[in-house]
Structures are given as structure tokens and as C-alpha cells.
Design brief:
The protein contains eight helices and eight strands; from the N terminus they run ββααααβααβαβββαβ. The N terminus and C terminus are likely disordered. Keywords: Isomerase, Rotamase.
Length: 272
């Protein structure tokens, strides 16, 4: 397979000029934010990144207006601490009760799983999170690799050795068995419920684009209710909080002047 197509130049992607109540959000911030919003297309990733930055700015401006300060907890930035404190003060939600937890468990059989591990191999097409041209080129290269592997799955080892930027290339891209927390969240989220085989679309992470084949899985049996109760309660709490936060953000957005992006509603995934 020729790699000449992989090296073709991609036109520079123009980023929107975002402002919230007259405060500009720099292109460098938007370019960095893109890495945290893996999606099936660049357009979807860009939309999610714009929305997240606008929401963050809305919340920080509200915290400024209320004079909110906060002490950082483990791993928090000062901005994250102030947003957490703002939401704790302004958004309150009830805890999930036993009936709500049992209803959720009955409606979602097999949703919560016990310990698991996955065996996989990949081809890493490395590029920095803020290298927009590099990411677009990597997407095209990943698409060609996937086309090649759909027709010739036996070539995975060779393609990994030729194109992967991961040290695992020496083993044909084989990462061995991975368990929860041993890889980036982007991997776990997309792979956990996949059947073994070549993933239809590349995975995007902070390191670049990954062409992935899931070779095997062990464990991951559904939990019984008693074992799952705490997780269910936490999950329901998050859902209720997300809805409440979404409504809160919607009010802030409705009162704000937002430029460069059509902000329609809000959801809890924006607060991270």
C-alpha cells in the first residue's frame, strides 16, 4: 500500500472566533480542547469543544459575579475548583432512593459489569492535540488503513510495523492484555462493550489516531443488584445533576451574548 496519499497536504482548518459577553476564547484553547472530545467526525468534535469552552466561560463569569472562591481539591485547577463550588452552591439535587435504583437495574440488565480485561493491538498515527492539519491527515491515513485491513486482515502486523508510532510496533502493534485504568479513557469507553474484531472507526486520543483490533476479552460479567447498588445510585445522581446543571447553564446562556457559535441548550457533559 502506497503511503503517498497519506502525505498529501490538508487545507488549514479555520476555527470559529468565540466570544462570551465580549470575552474572547483563543484559538489555542479551542485547539487544545479538541483532544478531549473524540468523535466520529471533526465537525462533531469541534462542536463539542466549542460548547465546552463556552459553558466553562459562562460558569466562570457567573462565579466572578458571585465572588466565589474555592480551595483546589486533588488534581483540580483553580478554575475547576471555582466551577465545582459554584455548582455546589447553586444546583442542589436529591439522592437516589432504593426504588429508583431497583427500577434502573431492572431496565438495564447487564449494564454494570464486574472486573474485566481486554486483549488488543493497534496502529498509532501520532499527532499533537493542537495539530489540526496533522489530525486531519491522520484521519485520512487511518481510513486507508482500515480499508486495507477489511480486505486483508492478515496484514495488521506488517502495517503496524510500517506506520505505527507506538513502541508496540515491534510486536506488530500488540498491547497484550489491558485492565481498567491501564490505558487512556478514550480506549476503555469505546472498547469495553465491543465484540472482538477490527473497530469500524479509528479511536482518537490525546496521542493521535488509533486503528484498533480487539483480539479478546475476559471477565466483565453483569453484577447482581446488591453489588451494583452503589454504582447505580451514583449514576442516577449524576444523571439528575446533569439535567439540573443543563437547565442552569441554559439560563446563563439565555442571558449571555455568545458570538461565533449557535448555542442551543446545554447538557451535563459540558461540565468536566
Amino acid at each position: 500500500m502506497s503511503c503517498s496519499h497519506y502525505e498529501e497536504r490538508v487545507e488549514k482548518v479555520e476555527l470559529p472566533q468565540l466570544k462570551v459577553n465580549g470575552v474572547a476564547i483563543g484559538e489555542d484553547l479551542l485547539a487544545r480542547e479538541l483532544q478531549y472530545h473524540p468523535a466520529d467526525s471533526y465537525a462533531l468534535a469541534l462542536e463539542a469543544a466549542c460548547r465546552a469552552l463556552i459553558v466553562r466561560q459562562l460558569l466562570l463569569q457567573r462565579a466572578d459575579a458571585l465572588g466565589i472562591e474555592a480551595r483546589c481539591e486533588d488534581g483540580e485547577t483553580p478554575e475547576e475548583a471555582r466551577i465545582r463550588q459554584l455548582l455546589e452552591e447553586e444546583v442542589q439535587v436529591p439522592e437516589a432512593d432504593e426504588d429508583a435504583c431497583r427500577t434502573w437495574y431492572a431496565a438495564n440488565p447487564g449494564r454494570l459489569l464486574g472486573p474485566w480485561r481486554l486483549q488488543l493491538r493497534h496502529v498509532l498515527l501520532a499527532c499533537a492535540p493542537d495539530d489540526l492539519e496533522g489530525r486531519e491527515t491522520a484521519r485520512k491515513q487511518a481510513a486507508e488503513l482500515l480499508d486495507e485491513l477489511r480486505g486483508h486482515p492478515e496484514r495488521f502486523v506488517d502495517l503496524a510495523r510500517r506506520f505505527s508510532a507506538c513502541p508496540s510496533k515491534e510486536a506488530g502493534g500488540d498491547l497484550g492484555w489491558i485492565e481498567p485504568g491501564q490505558t487512556v479513557p478514550e480506549f476503555e469507553k469505546r472498547l469495553l462493550r465491543r465484540a472482538p474484531g477490527l473497530l469500524e472507526h479509528p479511536l482518537e486520543s490525546r496521542y493521535g489516531l488509533h486503528v484498533v483490533e480487539l483480539l479478546g476479552r475476559e471477565g466483565g460479567e453483569p453484577l447482581d443488584f446488591d453489588a451494583a447498588r452503589a454504582q447505580i445510585a451514583a449514576h442516577l445522581q449524576v444523571q439528575v445533576l446533569q439535567r439540573a446543571v443543563g437547565q442552569y447553564i441554559g439560563v446563563l446562556a439565555g442571558d449571555a451574548c455568545i458570538e461565533g457559535f449557535a448555542f442551543e441548550g446545554a447538557d451535563g457533559a459540558l461540565v468536566q
